[in-house]
Specification:
7-stranded antiparallel beta sheet; Jelly Rolls; 105 residues; 59% strand; single chain; mainly beta; 11 strands; 4-stranded antiparallel beta sheet
């Protein structure tokens, strides 16, 4: 889906890592929540509350998922999921555009 219709957007930006990662929250009528964001090149670690489905729209990165020892390569057009209540690491090689969906379980 390239266009979200009939949504609300939270005006205040989510800013992490001194502005190297930013996003905006998109809220849907059915209670679904997504964030649309940009990650600058760098190394990051994130913690999750809900399960997350990450869609990479542009850029490349290496991802270390919870309970894994091997990094996986992700590029534009690919996705990955992270279980709820966990941490994951990213090494972003070039500017990454992403859409994160939060999944309540």
């Amino acid at each position: 889906m390239d266009i979200f219709e009939n949504v609300s957007i939270v005006k205040k930006a989510n800013v992490y890592f001194d502005g190297k990662v930013t996003s905006r929250t998109v809220l849907f009528d059915n209670g679904e929540k997504k964030t649309l964001g940009i990650m600058m090149p760098g190394e990051y670690e994130f913690a999750t509350a809900d399960k997350e489905h990450m869609e990479i729209l542009a850029g490349t990165m290496e991802v270390l998922l919870p309970n894994r020892e091997d990094w996986i390569s992700i590029e534009a057009g690919q996705t990955f999921e992270v279980q709820a209540h966990s941490k994951f690491k990213l090494v972003v090689q070039d500017i990454a555009d992403y859409c994160c969906s939060y999944i309540k379980e």
